[in-house]
Amino acid sequence: MNARLPQTPLDADQAIGQIAVQLPGATAIFRRLKLDFCCGGQVSLRQATADKGLDLAAVLQELSALQRSDEAPQAGAPPSSSTTSSRATTTCTAPSCPS
Predict the structure, then answer these.
(1) Cβ(10)–Cβ(64) under 8 Å?
(2) Which long-range contacts (C-beta less than 8 Å, at least 24 apart) are formed by 1-6?
(3) Is the pLDDT of residue 34 over 60?
C-alpha cells in the first residue's frame, strides 16, 4: 500500500533549514533568493525574508507550489524534475561555513 503522509502547511516561523530538509526543491528557491539555509538555517522564514527585504507572501506562495499533491506517482514512472529532491546536495558555500 502506498500511503503518503499529509503535507504539513508551510509556516513562516519555521526555520528555513528545516524547510530545506522537508520540502524537495526548496533549496533551489533559497539559493536563488540568496537565503542561507545551511549555517543560517536556524532563522525563521519570516526573519530571513525580512532581512533580505523579500516579500514573505510571495516566497511562501512559491514554496507552497512545490508541495506535492496527494496523488501517488504511477509505478515504474521515472521521477520528474519537480519531484526529485535536492536535499543530497546541500553543501554550505557561505563564507561563514566551516571548511
Answers:
(1) yes
(2) 2/72, 4/70, 4/72, 6/70
(3) yes
